[in-house]
Structures are given as C-alpha cells and as structure tokens.
Amino acid sequence: MVNRKELDPEESPSARFGQRLRTLRDERGWTQDELAERMGCSGTHISAVETGRRPPTLRFAASADKTFGTGDRLERQSRAVRHTALLEGFPEYVTHEARAAEIRLYEVGVIPGLLQTPEYAATLEADAVRREAITPEQAEERVGLVTRRQATLARTPSPLILAVLDESCVRRPMGDPTIMDAQFERLLKFAERPNTVLQVAPFSMGARRPFSLPVTVLTMPDRSIMSYAESAQRGHLERESTSVLPILAAYHQLQAEALSQAASVAMISQLRKGTP
Asked: Under CATH, which architecture does the 13-82 domain have?
C-alpha cells in the first residue's frame, strides 16, 4: 500500500494499540474508511489512532471492540494507553516536531527535552518516581522519548532551533555537580551549532516576560505554523494561524528582551565554573 507507515509497537502504548487496531482491520480486509463507517467516525481519525498520533479514548476502544467482536480487549488495552506517562496531545506534537523546519521553544524551570543529556533526563524522572507521580516504567518511557526526539533532529536539511530558557532553567541544580557540568557542556555545544540560537531570559526581565508557561512554535516545511503548550492535564496543539501568529509575535518580543547568545553563553560558562 502506498505511503503505509510502518509501526513500531515498542515505541509507546499508543503505537501498540494502533498496531493491534490495524491488524484487526487488515484481517477483515477493510479500508480505514470502511472501518470508520462501521464505527461512526472519520477515516482520518482511524489513521491517527493506528499511527499512534492520537491516543484512543475509552469510547473509541469500546466501539472498536463492538465492531470487531473482541469483547473488551481493546477497551482494556486503551486503559493502558491512558495510563502512559505522556500527556494527552504530546505524542501527536512529537510527530510534527520530527518534521518541522523551524522549532522555537521557551522553557521554564528545567532544561527542555531537546537539549537534555540522558543523565539529566534520568535524574529529572527519578525524582518524579520518588514523589510517586509516575512509575519506574513510565520514567523509562519518558527518558527514551527524549533520546528519540533528539535523534530526529539529525537530519538533512537540519531544522533551525531557537531556544529561550528562563534563567530558572540553568540555575536549578539537577542531581550531582557532574550531571550539571555535562548539561552545561551540552548547552554550550548546542549554541555553537550553525542551525541553533540559544538565549537566556534573565530574572531581571520581570513583567516584560511575555510567557509565564513553556511554549513551542513549529514552522513546517510548507511554512504553515502551529504552537504547542501544556496544562497540568494535557497538551494542546494549535494549528489555526490566527491563534498562532500572536504567540509567534510574543516570541519575537521575548527574544528581543532576552540576553544575546554571547551573553547567555557567558552566563552558562560562569555557572559551570561555579561563579555567580
């Protein structure tokens, strides 16, 4: 079949559910549109679930069980998907991030995943396990995703990555000094790359900081734009340009107010040496 995406069931619980759904559909010789008609949804929705871009709701899974005659097997599997450590909406965002021509991100409190060392990521998630916010298995899933996301950036042509970090990101210690030293080194090397810009938004910006929460703006190869932001419960991907353009404008203002890359590198180098 043309443009049939290969599935990796080990990638995530959503991918495992998607593979199972596709297998059941293929066994019956149905197209995605034919399955969608039987389930009362769209072929696009079926495609998104099969490829792991959209997690299955319990209602969707129950409808699939009824359609395939699988008892409650899919519904039970969907519960495992819902218990994943990843926020709803984030897996779909990651698929767009992997294709983006430009990535503009702003982070508060922690180094963003695309810039984390494996040790920093593991330490961050280990603390979440200690607080019983996630399980050890979920922590492993999160750390593995950080590695996979970074690997997708090693492509030609390289995406342009502009990162603005709130000063809290570089001042918050994570693990022992060796972990932070390696993380600072990663940031400095990131700033040296020809397709990156690294800036620190200092505390002194005060009320001039346009964002209080992390935000990411993606520019796709066709020059369309989308933004991604998270609440405590889910991630939200915005594709409407009328909503994204004000966020992009605010990001430009953030860059103008933040430290230059040279000044940001100097601050990180001082922190790495242990000087204020």
From this structure: Orthogonal Bundle (1.10)
